[in-house]
Design a protein that fits this description.
The chain is of the alpha/beta class and 203 residues long. The chain has one domain: Rossmann fold (3-Layer(aba) Sandwich), CATH 3.40.50. α6 links the parallel β3 and β4. The structure holds D-altro-hept-2-ulose 7-phosphate (I22) and zinc ion. Zinc ion binds next to α7. It is found in: Cytoplasm. Catalyzes the isomerization of sedoheptulose 7-phosphate in D-glycero-D-manno-heptose 7-phosphate. This is Phosphoheptose isomerase. Its main location: cytoplasm.
Length: 203
């Protein structure tokens, strides 16, 4: 029996969470071709004047904001700001659109307003089944934007909707999210490296 912490978790629980995490990360090479494909797409999009739109719910909303900030601000290299936006941050838009048209529309409406055919949308959903995420992908497809998804579990409905799906091979939401932010960081590194090369690393 391990030491009981304030939250009631025992050391064996921490060990099994760690083992789960390592197992997921050990299988990450299986999705390397898709990560590479999305990296190349993002670079081509930004080079040709497009932008990246991220969205998702809960932890994936946090990931969206985190990744947009890496591109607009800095990942590790000094360079110009890169065009990215998270559709999860403007509480006036989220509450007005959610209140007036329904929660399912909170991302789709912003896609309609902000996304063009030259852009890439990156949807983040562990289940791949969140209705507001699905509605936004549908809208982005109508507009003609390139659609990508970070998912987990069985990939959900979004798996067969998007142009490029990166499915983390786990059924545990938290483990999937840990892999999503890792993939996001790899992509930011990829894009930044392509924009400025290897020099002038600050972070
Ligand atoms: O972070 C977590 C759980 O780790 C939660 O906030 C989680 O993101 C929320 O339950 C989301 O609504 C789940 O949505 P999705 O990943 O299935 O699209
Ligand atoms: Zn979480």
């Amino acid at each position: 029996m391990g030491i009981v912490s304030a939250g009631g978790m025992v050391q064996s629980d921490i060990r099994s969470a760690t083992e789960e995490h390592i197992a997921v990360f050990s299988s990450m090479e299986d999705v390397a071709p898709q990560i590479e494909a999305l990296g190349e797409r993002l670079v081509a999009c930004i080079r040709s004047g497009g932008k990246v739109l991220f969205f998702g719910n809960g932890g994936s909303a946090a990931d969206s904001q985190h990744l947009a900030a890496e591109l607009v601000g800095r990942f590790v290299r000094e360079r110009r700001g890169l065009p990215a936006i998270a559709l999860t941050t403007d509480t006036s838009i989220l509450t007005a659109v959610g209140n007036d048209y329904g929660f399912e529309t909170i991302f789709a409406r912003q896609i309609e307003a902000l996304c063009g055919p030259q852009d890439i949308v990156v949807s983040i959903s562990t289940s791949g089944n969140s209705p507001n995420v699905i509605a936004a992908i549908e809208r982005a497809k109508e507009i003609g934007a390139f659609t990508a998804a970070l998912t987990g579990k069985d990939g959900g409905r979004v798996k067969d909707m998007v142009d490029l799906c990166i499915r983390v091979p786990s059924s545990v939401t938290s483990r999937i999210q840990e892999a999503h932010i890792f993939i996001g960081h790899v992509l930011c590194d990829w894009v930044e490296r392509s924009v400025v090369g290897d020099g002038d690393v600050r972070g």
